[in-house]
Design a protein that fits this description.
Length: 315
């Protein structure tokens, strides 16, 4: 729903941190692949032949560059890996995650926390409903959703851009949806943006003024048909977004009532009266609604996209 904002420097830092962890002598994928039991498993079964040939040279040594490419792959590169390395069944996937692609180990390591602190994804990018803070003392952090599920594509289990910091509800709801076959928005690149907007469907004046809940909240699309729209519809289906957002009707009522009380004139008056505090009407509205409706900041507060869309729509 909301794109994860990472500038190029931050992205590079994250890649450096992840490779440092993955190539460490005592941890990471590189270490697992060097282990003789891992090598034996990959070599012994024909279903792993393509994987074995990718990771080891003719002398049986790990090809470091290929490990690095895999763990730092972007979305299109991950899709190339899916075409090249294929899909695995549950037994195979469990075995591969046990011997090689140890997400369970990564998830508990300091590096996972450090990367999350660097990313600063403070609200779930899938739903924009739940906070996903990472505490400094490592006692709390968001879950990592595997965008391409590790149960189907286990070799992407520790690829950093396959890991989406998210709330547990979205992570659980998305589960093992095969996003390669049935794509949803990829939060490092995609977003609802202006393609999909929340809207209130009602002709009831009380609901319109925010003092009644006789309305439905729906997701409307600005384009009649597009690949993005199909992804959003899939995401809505899988994560039950429309239904979940209809649980926030009380919040929508507060937005519309607040907007009714604070007319355009009043907003302008506040802007003129406090020139040192506010640069724009959007700044004033953000404070009045205790949210941040500026597009670049949608990822900072829960329900910011909803607040933005309702405010624009009912203006
Ligand atoms: Zn979520």
């Amino acid at each position: 729903m909301i794109k994860i904002q990472l500038d190029e420097d931050t992205k590079q830092d994250i890649m450096d941190m992840h490779w440092k962890d993955m190539s460490h002598k005592q941890t990471g994928l590189y270490k697992s692949l060097q282990n003789s039991s891992c090598k034996t498993v990959l070599k012994s079964r024909s279903c792993y032949e393509v994987l074995y040939n990718y990771f080891y040279n003719l002398s049986g040594n790990v090809i470091e560059q290929n490990v690095k490419k895999l763990v730092l792959a972007n979305k299109s590169q991950m899709e190339e890996y899916i075409v090249k390395l294929g899909k695995f069944n549950k037994t195979e996937s469990d075995e591969l995650q046990k011997y090689a692609f140890r997400y369970d180990k990564f998830a508990g390591r300091q590096s996972a926390y450090n990367i999350l602190k660097k990313m600063k994804v403070n609200v779930c990018p899938y739903c924009n409903r739940q906070y996903t803070f990472t505490l400094e003392n490592n006692s709390m952090r968001p879950q990592f959703d595997h965008f391409y599920p590790k149960s189907l594509y286990p070799y992407l289990a520790v690829s950093i851009f396959n890991l989406i910091p998210s709330c547990s509800i979205c992570n659980q709801a998305k589960s093992s949806l095969d996003t390669y076959k049935e794509p949803i928005l990829y939060p490092y690149e995609d977003e609802f943006g202006e393609t999909a907007k929340f809207a209130v469907d009602t002709e009831d004046i009380k609901s319109f003024l925010g003092i009644g809940e006789n309305f439905q909240l729906s997701i409307n699309y600005s384009e009649s048909h597009s690949a993005t729209q199909e992804k959003i519809k899939k995401q809505n289906n899988v994560l039950h977004l429309e239904k979940m957002y209809n649980m926030h009707k009380d919040y929508v009522c507060d937005i519309t009532l607040n907007q009714y009380i604070n007319s355009d004139d009043r907003v302008n008056e506040i802007l003129l009266k406090f020139p040192d505090l506010f640069d724009s009407k959007e700044d004033v509205l953000s404070v009045l609604h205790m949210n941040d409706i500026r597009k670049d900041n949608w990822g900072k507060r829960p329900l910011s996209k909803l607040t933005h869309d309702i405010l624009k729509k009912t203006k």
